[in-house]
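Following the same procedure, sequence and fold were stored together, as reproduced here.

>
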Amino acid sequence: MSAPLYTAIATSTGEGRAGGRAVTDDGLLDVTLALPKSLGGPGGATNPEQLFAAGWSSCFHSALKLVAAQRKVALVDSTVVAEVSILPTAAGGFTLTAALQVHVGGGITRDVAESLTAAAHEVCPYSAATRGNVPVTLTTTVA
């Protein structure tokens, strides 16, 4: 395995997802965490699933732009929405599912857009890290 291109470092303190704090080593991310109201918490702060969805959507969007550039396809008005859901398991733990909604504008055909989405799913590190572990639904729309 080759040397890392970049390593992100974050530390969680306090009560973790139920009122803790997460901070990156450079201080650029410093968030209070709270259980969402839908999980019986107070809400009012972010949670790990939102942070994971934000990371995955931005990483996937970058992968989409990369594969489009490699194929010399100009992307216009592209967006990626990541929905990350937490579910209980039969063993009493929790698991995740994800839905990635890719929208491509600029008159690109559905076939090309779906091909770019599939290629981005192969290139994106979040997709690679979750492959086989997290069920993922990919949806591509064009305008």
In short: The mean pLDDT is 96. Strands lie at 10-13, 21-24, 30-32, 76-88, 94-105, 136-142.
